[in-house]
Specification:
123 residues, mainly beta, 10 strands, 5-stranded antiparallel β-sheet, Jelly Rolls, globular
């Protein structure tokens, strides 16, 4: 049973990534209620010049952002989930939705052995 009391976790292995652009994240064959997203990675320090920005998108619509800049969400501790700042607490996504991850970096910021975890439940 999948509902708000028994959610699922969709884990997407990104590996080591350092090329700016879009990456396919997930295809949702059924309606899905997205509750949150997390990044698990090697350590990323909070910095003003070396940073990573990840944006989860449904088409061109942003669903959540994680920015490791010192003035934004900051450092990512190794092997610890770092929450994306979601645009809404609950986001209902239609059956057939394809999500993408837009990746941008500055300086020497990069993802190493990264995973993105989508947290929610099927409707």
């Amino acid at each position: 049973m999948n509902n708000a009391n028994n959610p699922d976790l969709i884990v997407v292995n990104l590996g080591t990534y350092s090329t700016a652009g879009d990456v396919s994240l997930a295809y949702l064959p059924k309606k899905f209620m997205l509750l949150g997203a997390y990044l698990i990675n090697q350590a990323i320090i909070a910095d003003v010049t070396d940073m990573v920005t990840l944006t989860i998108k449904n088409g061109s619509t942003s669903l959540g952002v994680l920015n490791t800049a010192a003035a934004s969400q900051g450092a990512v501790a190794a092997h610890t989930g770092k929450a994306f700042a979601m645009t809404a607490a609950e986001q209902e996504l239609a059956a057939g939705t394809s999500l993408k991850l837009t990746y941008a970096e500055a300086g020497t910021g990069t993802l190493t052995l990264a995973q993105v975890c989508l947290y929610g439940y099927w409707l």
